[in-house]
From TrEMBL:
This protein's name: Uncharacterized protein
Lineage: Bacteria, Pseudomonadati, Pseudomonadota, Betaproteobacteria, Nitrosomonadales
Bilayer-spanning residue ranges: 6-23
Family annotation (SUPFAM superfamilies): Pili subunits (SSF54523)
Source species of the chain: Ferrigenium kumadai
The entry's keywords: Membrane, Transmembrane, Transmembrane helix
Superkingdom as given in the UniProt entry: Bacteria
Amino acid sequence: MVELIMTMMIIGILAAVVAPRFFDNNVFQSRGFADQVRASLRYAQKVAIAQRRFVCAAFTNNSVTLTVGATAACGTNLQSPDGAAAYVIVAPSNVTFATQPANFNFNEFGRPSAAVSGVIDGSTIAVEAETGYVHQ
């Protein structure tokens, strides 16, 4: 009987503390957006190297836009891998950058114009200055 009561108490505590976290998908959406931004910046670096062109990344509070050009003043929209005319990543409605990264570009060797970092709900996005390595 004591074991049954203890089991019910543990289940009750877990239900009160842990269950609400499973139903709040804001954490999952912000992590997904951060992963998508990191993957897109890696793609931008690879395109810069493959096409020997500049690829610019412009950030707003809740989106990232990638453009290409022959110089650091990129003007043409980068085509996304799925064939869309513009490569724009928009965050879900309740997700924004806590620390917005500065706009930058990758040169034809894949090096960024500056070291860049940003934060999305505790998930860091960093681009190394010399190598262009994009990581958390």
